[in-house]
Specification:
By secondary structure, this protein is an alpha/beta fold. It is about 55% helix and about 15% strand. It has a single domain (about 1-215), classed as Rossmann fold, CATH 3.40.50.300. The strands form 2 sheets. Strands 2-6-1-7-8 form a 5-stranded parallel beta sheet, with helices on both faces. Strand 3 (about 65) and strand 4 (about 70-75) form a beta hairpin. It is globular. It starts with a strand and ends in a 7-residue tail after the last helix. It binds 2'-deoxycytidine-5'-monophosphate (DC). It catalyses: CMP + ATP = CDP + ADP; dCMP + ATP = dCDP + ADP. Belongs to the cytidylate kinase family. Type 1 subfamily. GO terms for molecular function: ATP binding; CMP kinase activity; dCMP kinase activity.
Amino acid sequence: MIITIDGPAGAGKSSIARRVANELGFEFLDTGAMYRAVTWGVMQRGIAWDDVESLVEFADAARLIWQDDRIYLDDQDISEEIRTPQVTSHIRYLADPPKIRERITAQQRRIATGRDIVTEGRDQGTEVFPDAHCKIFLTASPEERARRRQRQLAEKGQVITVEEILASQNQRDLEDRMRPVGRLRAASDAIVVQTDGMSPDEVRGEVLRLVRECVQASAANSAPSDVTT
Ligand code: DC
């Protein structure tokens, strides 16, 4: 069974998807980490960002492994390295070209094959798993997402204004929404959860409730019906 959770940067998808997966005993896949990993790999090799052919070649050969919440590129655990602002600001070079998305989409489908999984990203319910059993689109206003991000950073001792966060977040939103393929949008059959004013616990509770409903409905639909002769 596949559950997709899509939404913009800073909507809290990863932590919610991880917790939903834990509660249901499903696996969790962070597809943003996959785009981050190939971006990091390109930076290490010094491939030019505008050399699309070489980028596609690299994405083709890259061996991405997602295991126990960690991401490996060609056997190297790079789970921390992929979270730097340098990686974030270059992701579009790997996330925009349709040929690269095709490769990463194929890897996501391969990872999900035969598994019960909660997968989160931008295009999971639209492009990668259009037949997913349950689709959630988790969102919040730009200001709310920026305020939450500021609080998270402050907890780590990093002081940055909401305005600064908002500026880079708006840039990412724009890039995510304008992508020719795999752009950020809710699938027509997704349930949109608008989380402004909700606490993390309230969001988790609401998403879990919706997902449980879907899972039950899906199990009921696939149960063999009584055949009367
Ligand atoms: O979820 P994240 O912030 O770690 O994702 C980083 C970037 O990766 C995001 O800005 C766009 C790209 N991405 C994508 O294009 N498709 C996905 N399914 C997930 C992420």
